[in-house]
Backbone:
């Protein structure tokens, strides 16, 4: 198993056990939303490539990231098809939208904040894969564990790009977004999603 202690140390909280319990009660919904998350991750990377065409390091890293996220999407929908799971439209979790509400509008701050948010989302995805994998059936467990290495790299790529986008420290902005992320992860949500808080009280 890929060592993700650096990601666990980066995040301010662990996934609550109540969310894990919710996931086990909603495997099909978890896979549907996971597929959506992979599409959105690829879309985010492509949007950055269109917006910042003069940043060659960003272009290279986001191009690779988009390809990998789309490959993960293909893998998720293949699992869904094998299991006879339909792919209906579902509303997104509040998670990413709430994080992105705090992104500043002017450059280079917009880029810096967007990259920090990307790093945090990838870090949480990686942490959740590691948390849920041991309690899933063998096929899903193997699949989720196989994603850890790439998700950990995506987190690091986003964070490195944020650090190189400015000569100033990004420490305070990272801390700001991590505090928001912790609140979103630890407070209850009305509907279960891959990045939701628990839909039942914390254990």
Residues:
């Amino acid at each position: 198993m890929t060592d993700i202690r650096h990601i666990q140390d980066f995040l301010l909280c662990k996934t609550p056990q109540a969310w894990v319990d919710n996931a086990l009660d909603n495997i099909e919904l978890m896979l549907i939303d996971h597929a959506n998350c992979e599409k959105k991750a690829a879309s985010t990377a492509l949007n950055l490539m269109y917006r910042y065409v003069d940043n060659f390091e960003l272009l290279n890293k986001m191009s690779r990231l988009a390809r990998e996220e789309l490959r993960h999407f293909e893998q998720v929908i293949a699992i869904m098809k094998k299991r006879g799971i339909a792919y209906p439209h579902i509303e997104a979790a509040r998670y990413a939208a709430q994080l992105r509400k705090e992104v500043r509008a002017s450059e280079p701050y917009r880029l810096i904040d967007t990259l920090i948010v990307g790093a945090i989302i990838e870090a949480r995805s990686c942490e959740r894969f590691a948390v849920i994998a041991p309690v899933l059936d063998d096929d899903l467990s193997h699949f989720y564990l196989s994603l850890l290495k790439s998700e950990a790299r995506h987190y690091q790529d986003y964070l490195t790009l944020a650090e190189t986008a400015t000569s100033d420290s990004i420490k305070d902005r990272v801390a700001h977004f991590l505090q928001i992320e912790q609140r979103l992860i630890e407070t209850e949500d009305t509907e279960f999603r891959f990045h939701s808080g628990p839909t039942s009280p914390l254990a």
